[in-house]
Amino acid sequence: MKNVELTKEEHLALISEMIVQAKQNVAKGGSFYFLLWGWVIMLANLGHYLIDKLDLYPYPFVVWFLTIPALIATIIYGIRQDRNARVVSHYDRIYGHLWTGIFVLIITVLAFMSKLSFNHNAVILLLSGLGTYISGTMLRFKPLIFGGIWLWAVAVVAFSVSVQDQYLIAGIGLFIGYLIPGYLLKRIENE
After folding, report:
1. Rg (CA), the chain
2. Where are the alpha helices (DSSP H) in the chain?
3. Cβ-count burial of 120 within 10 angstroms (0-12 exposed, 13-18 middle, 19+ buried)?
4. Domain total in the chain
5. Residue 33 placed within a domain
6. Dist CA 166 CA 119 (whole Å)
């Protein structure tokens, strides 16, 4: 195989093309995650709130079992997305590691929620806001950036209300912070 020397311009063009492809990989199908998790977590929060508020069932946390099929769907979709990616760049890996890290942090928060006096929802909103904000920054997609900022603001409010009301606040917050940007991203993906 013969070595071919590239000019500076060709190097820059190649790097630019790889960055564009990486952004397309991340953006293409990215709405799936925001929409899936936005709906699942919003419905679980609102369901938990209603069950607890109306005293419908002694274990309102049962609605959180909705997250199990969502997690399975996420893993399957992610594997398929990786297989179909033309180029997997460092950019793609950073995006994946960001959300994997946030998932680990959320699981840790849930494991120690009693130590947090059950104010875990507010902390999870902060973490979700961080992931959403950074995702928006990486994709240069302002609705996700604003969604992340919104989730941070909602987290501050959540810290100021009862644990029971945090579920209502989180449900509303996720509608604006995840679902609206998710649908806007989906619209761009379909263009």
Report:
1. 19
2. 8-27, 30-53, 67-84, 90-111, 120-139, 142-159, 163-174, 180-189
3. buried
4. 1
5. yes
6. 8
Burial of 178 (0-12, 13-18, 19+ CB in 10 A): buried
What are the structure tokens assigned to 60, written together?
A: 């309102």
Q: What are phi and psi of 118, to 5 degrees?
A: 60, 25
Calpha distance 168→120 (Å, rounded): 14
pLDDT in tens, the chain (191 residues): 556 676 777 656 666 666 665 555 455 568 999 999 999 999 999 999 999 999 999 999 999 999 999 999 999 998 888 788 766 677 778 888 999 999 999 999 999 999 999 999 999 999 999 999 999 998 889 999 999 999 999 999 999 999 999 999 999 999 999 999 999 999 988 87
How far apart are alpha carbons 84 and 72 in whole angstroms? 19
Q: Name the residue range of residue 64's domain.
A: 18-189
Q: Is residue 8 part of a domain?
A: no
In a domain, 5, yes or no: no
The full DSSP string for 126-173 is HHHHHHHHHHHHHHT-HHHHHHHHHHHHHHHHHHTS-HHHHHHHHHHH
> Would 77 be classed as within a structural domain?
yes
